[in-house]
Amino acid sequence: MLTAVMVTAAVLGVAKVVRDWLILRQVRAAMDAGTPEDRVRIGLRLAEALGGGPAAEAPGQVPEQPGGEVVRPRP
User: Fold this and answer.
1) Quick check: 40 and 66 in contact, CB under 8 A?
2) Cα→Cα distances 1→5, 8, 68, 69, Å
3) Which of 30, 54, 70, 72 lies 20 to 30 A from 62 at CA?
4) What is the pLDDT of residue 41?
5) Is 57 within 8 Å of 63 (Cβ atoms)?
6) Three-class SS of 9-53
7) What is the rounded average pLDDT of the residues 3-32?
8) How far is CA 8 from the centre of its chain?
9) What does the alpha-carbon distance between residue 44 and residue 51 come to, in Å, rounded to a whole number?
């Protein structure tokens, strides 16, 4: 039973490492092929996905969108 748990944990750990490596490979390819604006946008999305992202805005403040996109709150 303990062996099965250890093997399962090892397989899941290896699968996570392989998945992360594939994701980072795609991100690197996109960064190399993109314009500087694309690189900033990719970096912001990656930071947000990893739990970073922009600092918390004050209540009622509209967060700045990447790429100059303007978002206005509904009244």
Assistant:
1) yes
2) 6, 11, 56, 55
3) 30
4) 87
5) yes
6) HHHHHHHHHHHHHHHHHHHHHHHHHCCHHHHHHHHHHHHHHCCCC
7) 91
8) 27
9) 11
